[in-house]
Specification:
The complex is a heterodimer of chains A (52) and B (253). Chain A is mostly helical and 52 residues long. Chain A has 1 helix and no strands. Chain A is 81% helix and 0% strand. The longest helix of chain A is centred in the middle third of the chain and has 42 residues. Chain A is rod-shaped and about 65 Å long. The longest helix of chain B has 45 residues. The chains are: A mainly alpha (52), B mainly alpha (253). At the A-B interface, α1 of A face α2, α3, α7 and α8 of B.
C-alpha cells in the first residue's frame, strides 16, 4: 500500500481525521475537568461559609 | 431505564453508560480501521485512494445525523419544553462542526487525485459547506446571547430553518448534475458497493456513531454542570461570598 500512487492524500486524510476526532475528545474531557474543579471549589466555599 | 429527563438521573445514567460506550467505540474503531486499511481490497478504478472513503462517508453521514439530532432537540425546546433539550442541542453543535470539517477535508483530499481539484462549487459540496457554516453560526449564536432561555429559543428556530438543507444535501446528487458521485449505499434497489468494501464502511460508520453518542453524552453532562455552577455562583454572589466573582470567568464557555 505504501508504494501506491496518491498515498500522501490517504495519509493526510487519516491524519487530519485523527487530529480532529482526538481533539474533540480532549476538548470535551478538558471541559468536564474545568467544570468539576469549579463546582468543587464553589461547593467547598459554600460549606466553608455555612457557619453561624 | 432511568428517567433521564431529570438532570440528576441523567448524570447517573451517563456515569454508568460511558465505560461501556467507550469500550464499544474503541473496539469498533480498531476493527474498522484494520478492515479498512489492511483487509478491504483497493478499488479497481481508484486504487488505494478509495480508502479515504472509510473516513469521508461516515463523517458525512454523521454531519447530517447530528443535525437531525439537533433538529429533534430544537423541537424538544420549542414544543415539548424538555428540560435537557437545549443542553442536548448546544452540546451537539461543536461535534457536528467537527464531523462536517472531517467530511469536507477528507473529501477535498480525495477529490484532488480523482477529480484533479481540491474543491468545486458543486451542489453536494456547496450544501455541505453551508451545513458547516450553519454549525458555526449556531455555536456563535449560543455565545452571543447571554440569557440561556433566549439563546436556546433563537438557536432552536435557526436549527429548524436550517434543517431544509439536509434533504438538499441528500438529494443534491439526484436533483443537479454534480461532479460528486450519486448515493451508493442508502438507495432504492440496495447498495451498489461490493460487500468487501461495504462491511468495513458500515463498521466505521458504527464506530463514528458511537463516538458521537459518547461525546454527546459527555458534552451534555458538561452543560448540566455549567448550569449548576452558574446557579450556585449567583446564589453565592447574592450572599456576598468572596469567592463568587472569581468563578464567573469559568462559568461562561
Amino acid at each position: 500500500m505504501m508504494a501506491a500512487p496518491h498515498i500522501g492524500f490517504v495519509i493526510a486524510a487519516y491524519a487530519i481525521a485523527a487530529v480532529v476526532l482526538v481533539g474533540m475528545v480532549i476538548a470535551v474531557v478538558a471541559d468536564y475537568r474545568t467544570q468539576q474543579k469549579a463546582l468543587r471549589r464553589l461547593e467547598g466555599g459554600r460549606e466553608g461559609s455555612a457557619g453561624p | 431505564m432511568p428517567n433521564i429527563a431529570n438532570p440528576t438521573a441523567f448524570l447517573a445514567f451517563v456515569r454508568r453508560a460511558l465505560p461501556w460506550l467507550w469500550a464499544a467505540t474503541a473496539a469498533l474503531f480498531a476493527l474498522g480501521l484494520w478492515l479498512a486499511l489492511f483487509v478491504a481490497p483497493p478499488d479497481y478504478q481508484q486504487g488505494e485512494t478509495a480508502r479515504i472513503m472509510y473516513l469521508h462517508v461516515p463523517a458525512a453521514w454523521m454531519a447530517m445525523f447530528i443535525y437531525g439530532v439537533m433538529a429533534i432537540a430544537a423541537l424538544g425546546t420549542l414544543v415539548w419544553r424538555h428540560p435537557l433539550a437545549d443542553a442536548a442541542q448546544k452540546a451537539a453543535a461543536p461535534l457536528g462542526a467537527g464531523f462536517t470539517f472531517v467530511c469536507l477535508t477528507t473529501g477535498s483530499l480525495w477529490g484532488k487525485p480523482m477529480w484533479g481539484t481540491y474543491w468545486v462549487w458543486d451542489a453536494r459540496l456547496t450544501s455541505v459547506l453551508v451545513l458547516f457554516i450553519l454549525y458555526l453560526g449556531l455555536i456563535a449564536l449560543w455565545r452571543a446571547i447571554d440569557d440561556p432561555g433566549r439563546a436556546a429559543r433563537a438557536a432552536a428556530i435557526l436549527t429548524l430553518v436550517g434543517s431544509v438543507n439536509i434533504p438538499i444535501i441528500k438529494f443534491s446528487v439526484d436533483w443537479w448534475n454534480t461532479l460528486h458521485q450519486p448515493a451508493s449505499v442508502f438507495r432504492l434497489g440496495g447498495p451498489t458497493i461490493a460487500p468487501s468494501l461495504l462491511w468495513p464502511l458500515l463498521i466505521m460508520a458504527l464506530a463514528f456513531t458511537l463516538l458521537f453518542v459518547a461525546l454527546h453524552l459527555m458534552a451534555i453532562r458538561n452543560e448540566i454542570l455549567r448550569r449548576r455552577i452558574a446557579r450556585l455562583t449567583m446564589v453565592a454572589a447574592a450572599r456576598g461570598d468572596s469567592f463568587a466573582p472569581t468563578l464567573t470567568a469559568s462559568v461562561h464557555p
